[in-house]
Amino acid sequence: MTQTLHPAPARLRPREWGILLVLCGAIFLEGSDVAMLTVALPSIREDLGLATGELGGVVTAYVVGYGGFMLLGGRAADLYGRRRMFLAWLTVFLVFSGLGGLATESWMLLAARFATGIAAGFLTPAGLSLITTQFPQGALRNRALIIYGAAGAAGFSLGLVVGGLLSAIHWRWVFFAPVLIAAVLLAFAAVMIRDDETRTDDGGLDVAGAVTATAAMVLLALGIVRLEHPAEGVGWTVGALAGGAALLGLFVAIQRRAPYPLLRLGLLRSGGLVRANVSALLFAGSFYGFQVLLTLYLQELRGWTALQTGLVMLLMAIDVVIAPLVTPRLVDRFGVPRVIAAGLGAGVVAVALFWRAELDWSYPAMVPSMVLTGVAFALVYGPLAIAATDGVAEREQGVASGLLNTSFQFGAAMGISAVTAVSVLALGGVLGPEAGLDAFRTALWVPVVGGLVAIGVILSGRRR
């Protein structure tokens, strides 16, 4: 007699909710940390007397540390235990965030931000791989990943507002507030997250691969960020990018011969994983590029304050509601690629609507774009995590998570650099609000094209 099996409903038990809330708190903290710092930069420059190059370095130091150590962080989580890595690097994140708030010289702040970025590079893949290993594959894991993605997006959106409020008190609270949150998360994580099995039979860490991969990622991240400042030495920018590319080629050669590689190249034969990572890179570039353009439009062309700008973008946090309530049902009904494509489409429309922007545009005219951007994050971020880790063996979940987060990080850096470069070229040295508005509209092509290409990439798997 044939028995029909029905899948269990994707309902989280109390302990699973506790684990998920801790991990969501960590990714929320990471997202809000970046956003709060962005809003606080003018106050930091005024108080510490930073030059323009040093101010940009505060952001660059974090991005370089974060992007450079992400792949190594994913592998370390697989080898030495995801819970152990999560707790250890959350502690490092807490310590150096606090030291950043105590900085009295520019070099102290830069060093603290670099170390905080490294901590995030280890912390983020450990947190994502904890979800993919502590929740069984299927509807339950999918729901957890979607909620996790919504928390990361909400961290950035709400961080803009919170950063404006904290900066109004003092910019140092932008660093001290994450310390308090991290301390609470650390206490709960130690209790809620159960031990995961540490593998000791995999030959240890590929040292040569780790050194070359980390050096390549650091140089590439530095080169990409420097593209925003073409007047500050093209030679250094080209040298960083060329050096990063050469080291990346060396890394691939090492992985082909290493008995225990940092990144098993066979993992890249998974079409779903590759498409998810390419789409993540394009989506992050489009979203963060649009975010920068929108901030410049509101603050430089419209004269709005940082707090007003953050409040405008608050509607983007609508993904906190949509992602857990709607996205899992859409994934179950239409499948991951279609949901991602729909979200990317919403993002393209959100950006395209700003082609109609004027210097006296009212806030209600911006609302559709803000809502659609939130919808885009709700439908894209979590499902991309599903696509990038689905079918990957448990022993390689950390590496898969590190790859995805590396794609997000490098995509964001590339998108910001691209829109900045296009905006400067379109401006052509002409000053004035009208010229700035024309340059803004021209630079919007970058996120629009990036979103359209991402749609083609993610749907190409369905055609096959």
Produce the secondary structure layout:
Elements: H1 14-48, H2 52-80, H3 82-101, H4 106-134, H5 139-169, H6 173-192, H7 207-226, H8 234-257, H9 271-301, H10 306-313, H11 319-325, H12 327-334, H13 336-352, H14 363-389, H15 397-427, H16 433-443, H17 445-463
Helix pairs in contact: 1-4, 1-5, 1-6, 2-3, 2-4, 2-7, 2-15, 3-4, 3-6, 4-15, 5-10, 5-11, 5-14, 7-8, 7-15, 9-14, 9-15, 9-16, 9-17, 11-14, 12-13, 13-14, 13-17, 14-15, 15-16
Helix content: over 70%
> What is the beta-strand fraction?
under 5%
Q: Helix segment count?
A: 17
Low-confidence stretches: 1-9
C-alpha Rg (nearest Å): 21 Å
CATH architecture: Up-down Bundle
Q: State the total count of DSSP E strands.
A: 0
Structural class: mainly alpha
Largest sheet, described in full?
A: none
Would you give an account of this structure?
The chain has a single domain (14-194, 262-463), classed as MFS general substrate transporter like domains (Growth Hormone, Chain: A), CATH 1.20.1250. Helix 2 (52-80) runs antiparallel to helix 7 and helix 4 packs across helix 15 (397-427). The model is unreliable at 1-9 (pLDDT under 50). The radius of gyration is 21 Å and the shape is globular. The protein is mainly α. It is built from 17 helices and no strands. Helices cover 79% and strands 0% of the residues.
List keywords for this structure.
mainly alpha, 464 residues
What is shown here, in short?
This protein is an all-alpha fold and 464 residues long.
